Amino acid sequence: MEMKEHMKQFIDDFYQEDTNYDELPVVQLIEQEEFSTLSEMPIPEDGQSVEEMVHILRKEVYPNRSIGEHPRNFAFIPAPIEEVSKLGDLINLFYNPNASGWYPSSGTACIEHSLINWLCEQAGYSDDASGIFVSGGSIANLTAAIAARDNKLKPDDISKGVAYISNQAHHSVNKALHIIGIPEERIHRLETTADLKISYDDLERQIEIDQEKGFKPFLVMATAGTTNAGVIDPIEKLAEVSQRHNLWLHIDGAFGASLLLSKTHKNQLKGIELADSITWDAHKWLFQTYSCAMLLVKHRSTLLNSFSNRPEYLEDAHQADRTDFWDLGIELSRPARGIKLWLTLQTLGTKKISEQIDYGIALAEFTETQIRQTKHWEIMTPAQTAIINWRYNNPKFTDAELNKINTQLSEKMTHSGYAQVLTTKLAGKTVLRMCTLSPLTTETDIVKTIEKLNQWASEIN
Ligand SMILES: Cc1ncc(COP(=O)(O)O)c(C=O)c1O
Question: What atom in ligand 1 is closest to the CA of residue 225?
């Protein structure tokens, strides 16, 4: 069979057998026997049949995963996908451009640059803004931290630089700070208020204390849509404090920045245009395949200041009137990640995207209503940006017992294959957490998920 026939066959088989979500467990972990067979499979001296190897991949490798686009995957930040995103990925894969700059791929550069400009406009940035498509929120946060360090700290002051994050910040923010040379003792975890938002009073207080001690506060990394609870930090207030003290304000909107495309909920991000940089993942709530995320910056010059570097072997490839992506970020060779998002936005239109985002929020609110009607279930954080936390809380059990019970309920759901509902910890308590992003999820899916959890909880004595 020609390779083209293998590809066609794979696509046919995938759509026939691997997208039948009602029959597929949401999550499956590899069994020990399969693990041993696969990991001990030798690399042969003579090549083997493509058909057989594709069969192994389809039947033994990929079934062992959490299906991000499954309508009852409520874990992590799930990854519902618009099918057209796969087409965009496929097209880019086939042409395989090196999208590092204008010369190697001017067509895709034109689309990626104009899409970045459009996204900057949605954030309320001026023409001076810019950005880059990167592999994910972690790399976007790292890119922002590098730019913040280089634009706010003199080289001699790096050893005194202090950054401020929330105790609810995503761990990639910690990693980013570690990578740019800010050790734990110079990362201040700010207090959060009862609604889990950064306390800007605490920020102001900490900055003043640190300045008095001779440190150099330079960066605030806040979140729009925390991973735990979907909380949006008080952006306008944080911008005010940051500006007053000449600090860089970064908004990690890996999850929540997508509200910028919701006609109804965009106002929750009021003031985001005041931030120096914004992380925004398209492979979360813009329905893209992995990997596709954006880092947007208020001023293009800040990225150029950190990343622009013109070695002799790239001289011929640079065009004087154009900005190459290698001058705006960490990577040189890179896929044109923005193409699939462009194709999705072009073919769905902003109205449909906006409705799909609003639907995720409505589903979380529906979930909250259902839980409030169920005895012994306690809402821990209300529905916010499509995330809700709650816990089974029957007063006949101690807190320690309840922590165990909630974990067991989550595990039972995972083993049932029906849905994936994982736990997190809030104020030391183990809670159940649901993130409802998929346009394919129905209210019946939610009702049945809660019914099952409730049934199992009532069987515990
Ligand atoms: C708030 C937040 N920031 C950053 C990240 C990291 O994103 P990625 O997994 O795309 O690197 C996540 C992932 O869930 C997140 O929720």
Answer: 1
Q: Is 281 in the pocket of ligand 1 (CB under 6 A)?
A: yes
State if pTM tops 0.85.
yes
Q: Which of 319, 345, 317 is nearest to 116 (CA)?
A: 345
Express each pLDDT in 9-26 by its tens digit: 999 999 999 999 999 999
Cα 236 from Cα 183, distance rounded (Å): 28
Any atom of ligand 1 within 6 Å of the Cβ of 166? no
Please indicate whether residue 256, judged by its CB atom, sits closer than 6 Å to ligand 1. no
For residues 228 and 175, the answer to whether their CB atoms sit within 8 Å is no
Counting atoms of ligand 1 from 1, which one is nearest the CA of 223? Answer: 1
What are the residues whose beta carbons fall under 8 Å from the beta carbon of 116, sequence distance 6 or more?
130, 131, 132, 133, 294, 296, 338
- Give the CATH number of domain 347-458: 3.90.1150.170
Does residue 230 have its Cβ closer than 6 Å to ligand 1? no
Give residue-wise pLDDT tens across range 224-265.
999 999 999 999 999 999 999 999 999 999 999 999 999 999
Which residue's entry shows tokens 């499979």? Answer: 41
Q: Which of 170, 198, 337 to mutate to test the pocket of ligand 1 (most atoms within 8 A of CB)?
A: 170
Ligand 1 atom, smallest distance to 135 CA: 10
Joined tokens for residue 180: 């740019």
Confidence (pLDDT) at 319? 79
In CATH, what number does 97-334 get? 3.40.640.10
Q: What are the structural domain ranges in the chain?
A: 3-67, 97-334, 347-458
The 3-state DSSP class for residue 34 equals helix
Six token digits for residue 106: 């001017």
Asked, colleague to colleague, whether 97-334 and 347-458 share their fold, the answer is no
